[in-house]
Amino acid sequence: MEAINIHIGKTVALMNDNIDTDQIIPKTFLKRIEKTGFGEFLFDEWRYLPNRKLNPDFPLNAPDRQEATILITGDNFGCGSSREHAAWALLDYRFRVIIAGGYSDIFYMNCTKNGILPVVLPKEARDKLASLAADERITIDLPNQKISSSVGDYSFSIDPTWKNKFIHGLDDIAITFQHLEEIEAYEAKVDAK
């Protein structure tokens, strides 16, 4: 997992509440077994017109928002089914941070396990960040749990365990490898019996 300490990026806002995982990545596209290749189908039914041309009215399709790595959105983001593909699609598209009013528990965990930092902020703060011009960048300072922008600075909370994993770029496998000597010692003891 790629570490996140300080992330500086452009934003795009999709301020709908209750965006579910089927809206994030429709079930039609869940046929791959790899974690990659899902980005082109992110918000598929909203991003594309029936003829598969980009919908010019959808925020992610705005030419000046193509470099956005931070998604600002509404409440209860990622509700619905537990599909991990939703996190894969967001990451594959290029999002590293999502700022929402809240998340479903399973989706939140899928984000943290796949290297997407899920931040919770109140609506007033999200509305201000959503108003930023396309060329503005904001700074997410994870060690200090602070967001800095031209429209204000905001603090956020994160579980210390997840904070540590993001700062050090640790996924579950990397954490297991931190205990490799202990594992090998145990296996040697079991094999000796």
Radius of gyration (Å): 19 Å
Q: Which CATH class is shown?
A: Alpha Beta
Basic shape: globular
CATH topology: Aconitase, domain 4
Name the helix and strand elements from N-terminus to C-terminus, one letter apiece: EHHEHEHEHEEEHHH
Quick one: biggest sheet? 7 strands, mixed
The second-level CATH architecture is: Alpha-Beta Barrel
In whole angstroms, the N-to-C terminal distance is 37 Å
Given helix and strand content, the structural type is: alpha/beta
Helix content: 25-40%
The total of beta strands comes to 7
Task: Give unreliable regions as ranges.
Answer: none
Number of helices: 8
Give a verbal description of the structure:
The chain starts with 5 loop residues before the first strand and ends with a helix. The protein has 193 residues and is α/β, with parallel strands linked by helices. The protein has a 7-stranded mixed beta sheet with strand order 4-3-2-1-5-6-7. It has helices spanning 21-24, 44-47, 85-93, 105-114, 123-130, 160-168, 172-177, 180-192; strands at residues 6-14, 68-73, 97-100, 117-120, 137-141, 146-149, 152-155. It has a single domain, classed as Aconitase, domain 4 (Alpha-Beta Barrel). The model has no long low-confidence stretch (mean pLDDT 95). It contains 8 helices and 7 strands, in the order βααβαβαβαβββααα. The longest helix has 13 residues, at 180-192. Helix content is 33%, strand content 19%.
Can you describe this structure in just a few lines?
The protein has about 190 residues and is α/β, with parallel strands linked by helices. About 35% of the residues lie in helices and about 20% in strands.
